Amino acid sequence: MSIKPLPYPALHASHSGIWICGTDGISRAIGKGEAIGAVAETPHILLNAPLLGQRLGYPDLSGLDLLELFAFIYPARFVVPTPAGMAKTLGLNVPEQEADVAAFCRAAAAALMEQMEARNWKEREGAWSSAQALYRLRWPWASEVAQKLEKPAQGERWLFSKLEEWEEQPPRPAPKSITLSKQDTLATLSTLTGEGAEDRQGQKSYAAAVAGIFNPRRIKGAPNMLLAEAGTGIGKTLGYLAPASLWSAEAGGAVWISTFTKALQRQLDRETRRIYPDEESFRKKVVVRKGRENYLCLLNLEDALQGGFAGRAAILAHLVARWAAFTKDGDMIGGDLPGWLTTLFRRNGSTALTDRRGECVYAGCPHYRKCFIEKSTRASQQADLVIANHALVMVNAARGREQQNRPTRIIFDEGHHLFDAADSMFAARLSGQEAIEIRRWVIGPESKSRGRRRGLAARLADVASYDDEGGRAIESARHAAEALPTDGWLQRLSEGEEFGPVEALLAEVRTVVFARDESQSADAGYGLETELTEVEGPMIDAVATAAQAMDALLKPLVRLGQRIEHLIEEGPDWMDAQARARMEGALSSLGWRCDTLSGWLSLLSRIGGPADPDFVDWLMIDRFEGREYDIGICRHWLDPTIPVTEVVTKPAHGVMITSATLKGGGEWETARARSGAVHLDHPAQEFEVKSPFNYAEQAKVIIVTDVKRGDMAGLAGAYAQLIEASDGGTLGLFTAIRRLRTVYARIADRMAQSGLPIYAQHVDPIDTGTLVDIFRDDPKASLLGTDALRDGVDVPGDSLRLVVMESVPWPRPNILHRARRLAGGGTAYDDRIIRARLAQAFGRIIRRSDDHGHFVILSSAFPSRLLSAFPVGTPVERMPLEFALREVREASSFNLKRHAERGFTLSRASSLRSRSEGAA
Fold first, then answer.
1. I want to staple 835 with a disulfide (CB 3.0 to 4.6 A). Which of 304, 443, 604, 869 is the partner?
2. C-alpha–C-alpha distance, residues 555 and 548, integer Å
3. Would you say 259 and 413 are in contact if contact means Cβ atoms under 8 Å apart?
4. Which residues lie below 8 Å from residue 498, measured CB to CB, with a gap of 6+?
5. How far apart are CA 196 and CA 87, in angstroms?
6. Which residues contact 101 (CB under 8 A, 6 or more apart)?
C-alpha cells in the first residue's frame, strides 16, 4: 500500500547544493536567497533544521523537522540523523543522490505519520495529551499529529503517575572472603564468549590475572592492585567481566567498573547482558551510575511543563516528558535520550532540566520516590555490577558519600585517563562563575527571572522555625553571601566598577594577568594566565579582605550543618522519614559548599607566603574568541594521584587499572606514575598482553614530509586529497580548534562535490556522540575533531580506514604543564604524554581482525624517538604527499576489491553491520 505524502514542500541543503521538493513531488535545485525566502513564507519539511540553517547561512531556520516528529513518535529510540539513517530505521529506500533527499523527506514524514495508526505502536500512551499541549505551544507538527490520534475513552495515565517508585531495602551484608580459582574463572569466561568463539589465549591469561584482585587482602591500606595493559583485540571487557561476575555471585559483593567515556559505559551495558540474559535479572544485577547532572530532574521538568519554560524551550520540555515516560533510567546525557534532540533546540532549556546546581530538596520533592537519581543510587546498593565513571567514584569517596556501600572492588577501565580525571576532581578554582553559583545557592533568586531556584531560607524553612540557632545561621549565611559576585560582575570589572570584596580580588587578578602576560595571546583572543608569585600590596590587601568575607560565610554554614546534625539525632516529632531524608540531603549539599569554601580559604592563605611544593597555583582569565567569560585563581595538585590513592585506592580491597595504552607506548614507569601505584606501600602487580592483530600487514604509519608548518592552504589541500584518495572513511585529528575550522571551511564544498560527506566537531551543530554515530553509519563520510575523538571512539570496519593527524600532539605549554614537566624529567615527561596520545589515536585504526588502514601524520619534523608509540612491527615510512596519496588510493582500491569478492559493497556491509548492532 502506498503512503500518501503530506501537503508540505521539503527542503534539503548541503555543501554541494540546495534542493526543494514541492507538493507536486518534483524536486529542483534553487539558490540560497530563494530557499530562505521560501522557508520564511511556507512551512517546509526539514531534516535537522540547525544543520540546514548553518549551511544556508540562516540560523533562524525553522519548519517541520523530521527529527522532532521522530522524537515524539519514538521518544526513547535513536536514529542516525541523516537521510540514510532515517531511511534504514523506517525501512525506506536510501536516497542515492543529494537531489533525491528533499523528496525522501516528504516520504519519511508520511511514513512516520502512518506509524501512529499502527496497532503495534508501543509509545501510544500519553501521546494524545502531549499532542494537545504541543498544539497550544504551536509546535509545527501538532496539527498533523492531532489528526492521527484519537482522544482516549478514559483519561491517560501520564508521566508522573506512570513512573514506578523505588523501595527502601535493607543494607547489603558484607561480602564473603573467597579466592577465585583459575579453572572457575576460565569456565565463566568460556560461558560468556559462547560456543564456537575464537580461542584467545591472551584473553584467558588476562582474565586469570584479573581474578587476583578479588582475593582477600592481607594488610589494611594495601589493596590487591593490578596494572594491566591489554592490547586492542584481546577482548578485555569480557576478560574482566568474567572474574568480576563470578566473584560477585559467590561472595555476594558489588564490583564497580569505572570508565572515562560514555561510549564505553554503553558498551559495558550491552556486554553485561551476556551475564544476565533475563531482562528482569539484568535490571537488578547491573546498574549504570553517573553524576546527578546527567539525569532528568522531575521537579524541574514539572516546573517547565507548568509554564517555567516558554517558546521553543517549552516544546523541548514536552518532548522530554514524552521520553521520560519510556526511558530506561532517565539519563539525559549518553542514555536513551537521542543526543541530537537538545541540539535541535540549540540546547535552549536542556541544562535547566537537570540538577546542575546541587539544589535538590530530596525528600521534600513530591517526586522523590520516583526520582531517577534516587532510583539509580538505591539500585546500585543491591547490584552485582555497577558501571560508573572515574569522576563519580572519586567524588563519592572524597565527599564521603554512600559510606555504607563504598566500593571495595574497583576496575578502572580506560585507566590512562585516571590522571586527568583526578586532576580535574581534586583541583580548586576560585573564580567569578564559581562564586556566583554559591551566592545563588545561599540567597536564591534576586531578579524577576522565572525558575525553581530557591535559597537556603526557603529550602530549610522548617529548620529556621523550629531551631532558633539554625535560623540565625541561615540568616547570617544569607547576609555574608552578599559579599560574593552577583549578576553583571564581568561587565563591572571591565569598567573598573567592581562591587564587594570578592569582585575587588577578581579585579586585581585581571590587572595582574594583563600586566604580566608574555604569551602574545591577548591580541589573539585566547585565554591568559600567569604564575601566582611575587604578588604586591594591592593584591595582598584584596586577598585578605576576600578571605575575611569567605570566612564570614563559611562559619554560619558550618554552624548550620551542626544544627542539622543535632536535629537528625534528636528526632523531633515533626521529623518523619521524608523530613529526615531531606535533612540528610541538605547536610550533604552543605558539606559540598563548605569543602569548596575551605579550599578557597586554603588557596588564599598561601598567597604572599612560601610556595607549597605539592601544588601549582596561577591566575587566569578564561576567554573564548576574545570574549572574557571567567576570571580567577587556580590550584592543582602537582601529582593528583596522591589524593586518589588516599581516598579511593587504599581503602579498597582490590583495584585494577587497565587500558590498551596504559604504558602510553613506554615502560611501566609511566603506568605506575599516572595510576598512583608509586604511592602504595606495597607494589602493584603488573600484567601485559599484546594485541593479536598483525599490524605489519593491517596498518601502516606514513609521515608526510612536504606539508609546511603554518601553511593552511597546503594543510587543507593535503586533507582534501587524502580523504578523496581513501574515498572517505577518514578521521582527521587536530590539536587546535581554529585550524580545524579553517581546514573544514576550505574543503567542505570540495568534499561535497566529490560525493564524500564531511562533518566537524566544533563546527556542525551536532553533539560529539551523534557525530560519531553518523560517521560510523556511512563508509563514505569523514569526521574532523580534536581530543575528544582521539580515543574512546570505536568505529570498526570500513567506516574508518584512514586517520590523519595535522601535527605532533605536543602538550599545551601552560603553567601547570611546565611545573609537571620540571618535576617529571623535562623532555622525557613530554615524550611520555605524546606517545600516549599517539598510541590512543593509532588505536582507532584497527579494531578487529579484518580491519586495514593507514595512520598519516602531516609533520615532516616528527621525532624518530616517538615512533615507539606504535605497536611493534608496524611499518613506518616517511614520504612526500604524492607518494602517500598513491598508497592510500591503492589501499582503498584493494578494500573495494576485497569486499566485492566477498559479495559486499561498502555501503551494504555498513548497512548490515548497523542492523546487527541495533539488534544486539
1. 869
2. 11
3. yes
4. 489, 492, 504, 506, 507
5. 34
6. 12, 14, 19, 47, 83, 95
C-alpha closest to that of 43 among 10, 18, 15, 80: 10
Q: Do the Cβ atoms of 794 and 913 come closer than 8 Å?
A: no
Helix (H, G, I), strand (E, B) or coil at 560: helix
Report the alpha-carbon distance of residue 605 to residue 658 in Å, rounded. 39
Backbone angles phi, psi at 708, to 5 degrees: -75, 140
Question: Are the C-beta atoms of 632 and 430 separated by less than 8 Å?
Answer: yes
Is it the case that residue 111 has pLDDT exceeding 60? yes
Q: Taking 50 as the threshold, does the pLDDT of residue 918 lie above it?
A: no
pLDDT, mean of residues 569-590: 74
User: What pLDDT, on a 0 to 100 scale, did the predictor assign at position 464?
Assistant: 73
**Three-state DSSP class for residue 417:** helix
pLDDT at 920 over 50: no
Residue 295 DSSP code: B
Q: Which segments of 56-161 are extended strands (E)?
A: 64-65
How many residues appear in the chain?
A: 920
> What span, in angstroms and rounded, lies between the C-alpha atoms of 42 and 38?
6
**Residue 803 and residue 732: Cα distance in Å, rounded?**
6
Q: What is the 3-state secondary structure (H, E, C) of 584-605?
A: HHHHHHHHHHHHHHHHHHHHHH
Q: Among 117-126, 226-235, 380-389, which is the least confidently predicted range?
A: 117-126
Confidence of residue 914 (pLDDT cuts 50, 70, 90): very low
What's the rounded Cα separation, in Å, for the pair 409 and 649?
10
Angstrom distance (rounded) from CA 765 to CA 763: 6
What radius of gyration, in Å, describes the C-alpha atoms of the chain?
A: 29
- The answer to whether the CB of 715 falls within 8 A of the CB of 707 is yes
pTM to 2 decimals? 0.90
Map grid coordinates 536513551 to a residue. 336
Does the pLDDT of residue 907 top 60, yes or no?
no
Tell me the pLDDT tens digit for each residue of 140-161. Answer: 999 999 989 988 877 776 788 8
Report the alpha-carbon angle 421-422-426, nearest 5. Answer: 125
Q: Is the pLDDT of residue 739 over 80?
A: yes
Residues 309 and 353: beta-carbon distance below 8 Å: no
Distance of CA 295 to the CA centre of its chain: 13
pLDDT in tens, 826-875: 899 999 999 999 999 998 898 888 889 999 999 988 999 999 999 999 99
Q: DSSP state, 331?
A: B
227 CB-near residues (< 8 Å, 6+ apart):
415, 656, 657, 658, 662, 668, 671, 672, 675, 677, 684, 685, 686, 687
C-alpha cell at 447: 531578579
Look at residue 401 in the predicted model and tell me its pLDDT. Answer: 65
H-helix or E-strand containing 615?
strand 615-624
CB atoms within 10 A of CB 31: 10
d(CA 289, CA 267) in angstroms, rounded, equals 14
- What DSSP assignment string belongs to 360-401? --GGGSTTGGG-HHHHHHHHHHH-SEEEEEHHHHHHHHHTTT
